[in-house]
Amino acid sequence: MATNESASILGSVSLAVEYLDSLLPDNPLQAPFKNAWLYMLSNYTKFQIATWGSLIVHEGLYFLFCLPAFLFQFIPYMQKYKIQKEKPETWEGQWKCFRVILFNHFCIQLPLICGTWYFTEYFDIPYDWDSMPRWHMLLAKCLGCAVIEDTWHYFLHRLLHHKKIYKYIHKVHHEFQAPFGMEAEYAHPLETLILGTGFFIGILVFCDHVVLLWAWVTVRLIETIDVHSGYDIPLNPLKFIPFYTGARHHDFHHMNFVGNYASTFTWWDRLFGTDSQYVAYTEKMKKLQQLNKKTK
């Protein structure tokens, strides 16, 4: 009975989304995207698409999403949005970060990406245009991947902060007490493997087309680079996502080293009370701001 009711609810939601989708104007990017996808299928093998295509998508998006926060350091107006104003970025730190990032991407992540083709072949994951899921299904599956990754990240990240483990692995990521966008994947190789596993679990559960790999990579990079950006931008559209952590939440983790272990959502930290120091700090800062306003 419960299964039938769940199926009925999901069916009703799907129909409602389909109806809303029919009311939306045609996407002007749909035709160019389709043409590009068909061109890719006609000119490259599945192995090339799954491996080199995935690498190009990851590298291109990673540094593209890092660019805004990188440019903010040269714009005086944006400094009022920097969270830890007393700790500006340095060229030395950014250059070191860049070198480590390239090592992790090409020596750790690339071999994993090469396994993508074997995964799609083993599970018979389609590449063709006609099998591509609609945008709302793609978005729903990315959300499912985010929930799974966030759960994995919370518990494994919290474990990496254990005093017997921390100095051997996770301490590398905390080398920068004031994070910046490019530092999102600055980590010990073992941490890249341990926390990166959470990214692939959702793919194993939800993937029914190779496009989900690239959609989920896009969503995950947007999120992790945003929370590491070091800037709290008021009009950031990600703030409208319920329970989203945001830059201040994760920035406090780098500043405090304890608490705020989640990657995307706040519910695990709230449930286990590991955001208590962050909540106390936030309340303290609010009172100081109110006091400063009264004294002016």
UniProtKB/TrEMBL annotation:
Pfam families reported in the protein's UniProt record: FA_hydroxylase
Keyword Transmembrane belongs to the record: yes
Signal peptide: none
Fatty acid hydroxylase domain: residues covered: 144-274
Annotated TM spans: 60-78, 98-118, 192-217
InterPro entries, A to Z: Fatty_acid_hydroxylase, Sterol_Desaturase_Related
Gene Ontology MF term list: iron ion binding; oxidoreductase activity
Subcellular location: Membrane
Principal localisation: membrane
Cellular component annotations (GO), alphabetically ordered: membrane
Keywords from the UniProt entry: Membrane, Transmembrane, Transmembrane helix
Gene Ontology annotations of biological process type: lipid biosynthetic process
Protein name: Methylsterol monooxygenase 1
Provenance organism: Vombatus ursinus (Common wombat)
